[in-house]
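Researcher: We plan to redesign the surface later, but first we want a full-length starting point. Tokens attached.
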């Protein structure tokens, strides 16, 4: 993904967002449905940690992780992948 134009190949909606599904890397279990804009996707690719777009707050966000307890989220090695979703109109 060295070509900066790759991001435009994502099927962005009219609001410049794409639905993404966070899945457990080992089991494939769906953990959540969220949204990304171009900046969230760029940061996700650059950092290796999923960054999402909050439609209600109109701001980028990351899934919170407890400081003292390793959550199932962080242990799972979850990944976020932009993907078409049949429930994309359902937040």
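Model: Full-length starting sequence:
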């Amino acid at each position: 993904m060295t070509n900066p134009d790759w991001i435009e190949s994502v099927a962005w909606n009219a609001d410049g967002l794409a639905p993404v599904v966070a899945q457990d890397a080992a089991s494939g279990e769906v953990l959540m449905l969220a949204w990304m804009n171009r900046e969230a996707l760029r940061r996700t690719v650059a950092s290796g940690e999923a960054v999402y777009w909050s439609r209600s707050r109109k701001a980028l966000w990351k899934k919170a992780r407890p400081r003292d307890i390793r959550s199932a989220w962080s242990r799972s090695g979850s990944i976020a992948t932009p993907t078409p979703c049949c429930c994309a109109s359902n937040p």
